[in-house]
Amino acid sequence: xxxxxxxxxxxxxxxxxxxDRLLDKVNELLSQQIKIILIDMQNxxxxxxxxxxxxxxxxxxxxxxxxxxxxxxxxxxAKTIFDLTKMGHIFKPLExxxxxxxxxxxxxx
Length: 109
Known about the structure:
The protein contains five helices and three strands; from the N terminus they run βαβαβααα. With 109 residues, it is of the alpha/beta class.
C-alpha cells in the first residue's frame, strides 16, 4: 500500500540555521509521492521570520505538486507570530495530530 501522508516533527528554534533541513525533508517526502504532509510544531520553542519563510516555501512546494500541507500544535509564541503576520489564514493551523487525523485523514479513508 502506498503511503499518502507523513509527519515532520520539528523541535527547538525554527530559524535560518535549520530551515534548509525542513525544506529538504519536505522535498524528500514529495519525491516519495507523499501528497499530504503534516508539520508538527509541538516542540518548537521559538520561530523567527526565517522560519515563517521556510513554512511558506514548503507550502508552495507541496501545492506545486498538487499536495496539501498542514501545521499543528503551535506554541503560544508561534500562534502570536501567525496572528500578527496573518499566516493563520493561509495555513489554518490544527490544534494537534488528533485533529489532523479526524479532519484530514478520516476524510480520505
